[in-house]
Design a protein that fits this description.
2 domains, 296 residues, alpha+beta, 18-stranded mixed beta sheet, single chain, globular, Diaminopimelate Epimerase, Chain A, domain 1
């Protein structure tokens, strides 16, 4: 890693936060302490064996368009336009600073969005524009998979299933996520089942993490949109992840415009500082990406 970045990052204060099980490392970068290519630093921080461990890294920065700017990186080091659960975590942190208005206006790659960390639970408001859920049939190694393509800030492919724990679901998720029919960037993959009590049970496979995660804010919104399109949910839906944690989505339409309000719990788990050994230790790519046959 760059010597100047090691010097800048050593001792950097951070928070470990989670929104519905989606976990992040959040750092205050309003002083522009971190700059340039941060992809390797993000991979080191996010690694669950050699770093802090996270689905992604959030930097809070000043904005000339809003109260704050959220710079978000997936755990693979790539930047992303938006992370819904990450935005709720940022709003909770901002509320704890007692220096920002509520609701908070945050600049993201998907535009300026409103969020609140003072309400219980914290929420975000995501404008959706003219959302058109698109049924699409994908071929994965000869198996036909029917789902709904939805853009909820970022692209998602939502699949209604009868058994959320079928072994093949997460086995086929990487091929769906990268399917050429979903565009050059692919899409996140979300599986759901509608329960009789109106609950939507959901599993998430996220691009940029390239693995199953416990939650996804934009994925939860996408599932709510797809479920309403299929007649399995109304304008308000509650999504439950594999740990039983719940997030609520309200789909609203006014003046020809649509939006989704996502609310769910946020927890600040612990505070820490980055150590030099994390920044300087050998970190070969085969360790960063995981490899088969590692000794126990």
């Amino acid at each position: 890693m760059r010597a100047d970045l090691i010097e800048a990052a050593e001792g950097l204060p951070f928070l470990k936060v989670t929104g519905g099980g989606n976990d992040f490392v959040l750092a205050d970068n309003r002083n522009e302490r971190l700059g340039g290519d941060l992809s390797e630093l993000v991979r080191r921080i996010s690694h669950r064996g050699l770093g802090v461990g996270a689905d992604g890294v959030i930097l809070a920065e000043w904005s000339d368009r809003a109260d704050l700017k959220m710079v978000y990186f997936n755990s693979d080091g790539g930047a992303a336009d938006l992370c819904g659960n990450g935005l709720r975590c940022l709003a909770r942190w901002a509320a704890s600073c007692h220096a920002f208005p509520s609701p908070l206006r945050v600049e993201t790659g998907a535009g300026v969005l409103e969020a609140s960390g003072t309400d219980d639970p914290p929420w975000i408001n995501l404008p959706l524009g003219a959302v058109t859920p698109e049924p699409i049939l994908l071929d994965v190694e000869g198996r036909k998979v029917e789902g709904i393509r939805v853009k909820a800030g970022v692209p998602h492919f939502v699949v209604a299933v009868e058994d959320l724990y079928e072994r093949h679901l997460m086995d086929e998720a990487p091929a769906l996520r990268l399917h050429p029919d979903l565009g050059p960037g692919g899409a996140n993959v979300d599986y759901f089942i509608a329960r009789e009590d109106g609950m939507l049970d959901v599993r998430y496979y996220e691009r940029g993490v390239e693995a199953e995660t416990l939650s996804s804010g934009t994925g939860t919104i996408a599932v709510a949109i797809a479920a309403r399109h299929l007649g399995r949910a109304g304008s308000t839906a509650t999504c439950r992840n594999v740990l039983g944690l719940q997030s609520r989505v309200k789909l609203v339409e006014e003046g020809g415009k649509s939006a989704a309000i996502l609310a769910g719990e946020v927890r600040i788990l612990f505070r820490g500082r980055l150590g030099r050994e994390l920044l300087e230790m050998p970190f070969p790519s085969e360790l960063a990406s995981g490899r088969e046959g590692n000794p126990a």
